[in-house]
Structure formats: C-alpha cells, structure tokens
C-alpha cells in the first residue's frame, strides 16, 4: 500500500497506564497533510513526545482516533507501520558495531548501495568514505569514536535507509554545537523534501 503520509488526530485523549488519573492529552485535533512540515513546540511535559509515542503505537489513545491516510492505526500491521516512519531522537543510539551495521540496524535485506545512498542523503557519506575502514569502521560502544554531529547524521541515515514516508524529529539538533547543528540541519532539510515531517522542539527558534 502506497503511503501518502496524511496524519490525523481526532479528539484524542490519553493518560499513561501507570497514571490513568493524570491526563496528558485532552481532545487533541491535528490534521497534517502529506509532504508538509509541522512543529510541535512547547515546554517539557506538554505532551509533544506522547504524540510521537502514539504515532509509533508504543501506546494506544485512551479515546479518539489516530489515523494514517484515513486508516485508524490499530487496523494497520505494527511492523508495516513502523517501517513507514523514520525517527531521529535528540540523543542518537549507536551500537558497538560497524557504521554500516548501525545504519542497517533493525532492517532486513538492506544492501550496501542502499546504506550508502542513505548516508549520502544524511550528509555523512564523504566522512565515512574518508575513514581507512570506511563503512566497516567500528564506532565504539555508544558511538564513542564519533562526534555528536557524526552520530546524529548516522542516526538520520538509519532513519532514511528504508525510505520512510514520514519523518519524526525529536529535538534532533538541540544537543549539538553550532557548527555540527548547521551540518545536521542541512541534512535534515534535504531529508524532509517530499516527506511528511513532524518536529518536536522546546523553542520555535530551533525549528
């Protein structure tokens, strides 16, 4: 099924199961059109990350409906849904394996060409290609051999390697220095083209 990337929240209420008496979302309505960029801006605890968790189906809405292209999310296969979503968090998670394995992580049947294409889109291919071991370079536990900007671009390549219709960016540049932020932001701008993109930010100036 071809995904357009139309996201709808209709009168969505949500409380975490561990605290059912504390409402996190109250009657949220969102209509995010395919290929557009929408920013969720607000202070910590305002429910921004909860919206991502509902889109990824880590939780189900307490009431109301979350849909993709008109289909309620619970009606969609979970693995299929998550393959249509590319997620980049503020703190990238890298594993103590090679760069290529980090980009492929969790995806079946990804070719080397696809890995390199994703890395090119994420503005990290030239750096990887300059390393003596190239894509077989070990990144160290938690990516300790790499800078913050390099780790974030590898995380972006991982998000792009399966060509998702939707990008979810959770404060993706907020932990970087100005130089790294500029390089990562350029990669993100290219990645957003033609994709529905939802951005979490604490300040409007970071969008």
Automatic annotation (TrEMBL):
Listed GO CC annotations: mitochondrial inner membrane
EC number(s) given by UniProt: 7.6.2.2
Reactions catalysed according to its record: ATP + H2O + xenobioticSide 1 = ADP + phosphate + xenobioticSide 2
InterPro entries listed in its UniProt record: AAA+_ATPase, ABC_transporter-like_ATP-bd, ABC_transporter-like_CS, P-loop_NTPase, Type_1_exporter
Keywords: ATP-binding, Glycoprotein, Membrane, Nucleotide-binding, Repeat, Translocase, Transmembrane, Transmembrane helix, Transport
Gene Ontology molecular function: ABC-type oligopeptide transporter activity; ABC-type xenobiotic transporter activity; ATP binding; ATP hydrolysis activity
PROSITE patterns per record: ABC_TRANSPORTER_1 (PS00211), ABC_TRANSPORTER_2 (PS50893)
Highest taxon of source: Eukaryota
Membrane topology: Multi-pass membrane protein
Pfam families: ABC_tran (PF00005)
Location(s), subcellular: Membrane
Domain ABC transporter: 7-207
GO BP, one annotated term: oligopeptide export from mitochondrion
Protein's UniProt keywords contain DNA damage: no
SMART domains xrefs: AAA
Entry similarity comment: Belongs to the ABC transporter superfamily. ABCB family. Multidrug resistance exporter (TC 3.A.1.201) subfamily.
Name of protein: ABC-type xenobiotic transporter
């Amino acid at each position: 099924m071809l995904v357009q990337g139309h996201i709808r929240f209709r009168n969505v209420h949500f409380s975490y199961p561990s605290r059912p008496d504390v409402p996190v979302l109250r009657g949220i309505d969102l209509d995010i059109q395919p290929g557009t960029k929408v920013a969720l801006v607000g202070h910590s605890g305002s429910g921004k990350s909860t919206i991502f968790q509902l889109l990824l189906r880590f939780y189900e809405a307490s009431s109301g409906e979350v849909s993709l292209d008109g289909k309620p999310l619970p009606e969609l296969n979970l693995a299929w849904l998550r393959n249509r979503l590319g997620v980049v968090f503020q703190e990238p998670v890298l594993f103590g394996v090679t760069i290529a394995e980090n980009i492929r992580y969790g995806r079946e049947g990804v070719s080397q060409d696809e890995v390199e294409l994703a890395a090119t889109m994420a503005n990290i291919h030239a750096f990887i290609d300059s390393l003596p071991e190239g894509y077989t370079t070990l990144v160290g536990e938690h990516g300790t051999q790499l800078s913050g900007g390099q780790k974030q671009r590898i995380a972006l390549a991982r998000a792009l390697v399966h060509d998702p219709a939707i990008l979810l960016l959770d404060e993706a540049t907020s932990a970087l220095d100005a130089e790294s932020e500029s390089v990562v932001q350029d990669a993100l701008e290219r990645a957003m083209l033609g994709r529905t993109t939802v951005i979490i930010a604490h300040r409007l100036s970071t969008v």
